[in-house]
Amino acid sequence: MGKLKKIKVHIADDHMVLIDGIKAVLKTDEEIDVVGSSLNGEDVIEWYKSNKSDVLVLDINMPKVDGIGVLQEFSNQTSRPRIVVLSSYDDIKLVKEVLKIGADGFLAKKCAGEQIVQAIKTVHNGEQYFSEGVQQKIVSLFSGADNESKQAQDGVFVSSITDRELSILKLIAKEFNTKEIGNQLHISVNTVETHRKNLIRKLKVKNAVGLAIYAHKNQLV
User: Where is the signal peptide (predicted)?
Assistant: First the structure.
């Protein structure tokens, strides 16, 4: 039996106590390996010049170079880690800003202990992850925006969705990841991915968050 390939994680935060706390949580999961840590943004950038990780857990407020600066540094690179942003503030403007410059997930620090493993696995799987409060804000923000044009589109797209796609859409909106959806519906991860891409195309959204917004807006969950 082949050796399990672990998800390599780097943690960046200006408080060593938080880094140690996250490390302690991650050590309990056999699929994750913490390969490095940094106390400021400058060290993060330097570390990645000669090292690699699959996922970077990144604090926004750090000395020398902040999290925004680190994201901007990575935005020009083709080979970069998936990035989960940590912040004490879940202001929607900040969430939108970090997503725009390359973050794959956003986790409020108060949720970090209980949700960090799920966040790392979700972004490593190519999906976006948001702590619950943040996701609710995103849904509220976008479900009220551009309402008239969306109303004209909704009926057309609903009729083109298959029953299987509808089941998957509902589970995405409930924050199930690809593997969990596959287990729930007894289908392969690749099949889930194919349906997810078809949903994104049919509903003319950009990602899984767009699918969740659509589902909530149309009261499918």
Answer: none
Rounded distance, CA 53 to CA 47, Å? 10
Q: Which of 135, 219, 140, 218 is nearest to 176 (CA)?
A: 135
Write out the two tokens for 35. Answer: 């390969």
Determine the residue type at 81: P
Q: Greatest CA separation found in the chain?
A: 56
pTM for the whole structure = 0.66
Instruction: Extract the residue ranges of the chain whose pLDDT is less than 70.
Output: 1-3, 138-160, 221
Q: Indicate the SS3 state at residue 87.
A: strand
What is the CATH number that goes with domain 7-131?
3.40.50.2300
How far apart are the C-alpha atoms of 81 and 78, rounded to whole Å?
Answer: 10
Q: Whole-angstrom Cα distance, residue 43 to residue 70? A: 10
- Give the model confidence (pLDDT) of 40-73 as tens digits: 999 999 999 999 999 999 999 999 999 999 999 9
Phi/psi for 124 (5° steps) reads -65, -25
Report the CATH fold assignment for 144-217: Arc Repressor Mutant, subunit A (1.10.10)
Is-contact 18 43, C-beta < 8 A? Answer: no
Here the tokens at position 108 are 């409020």
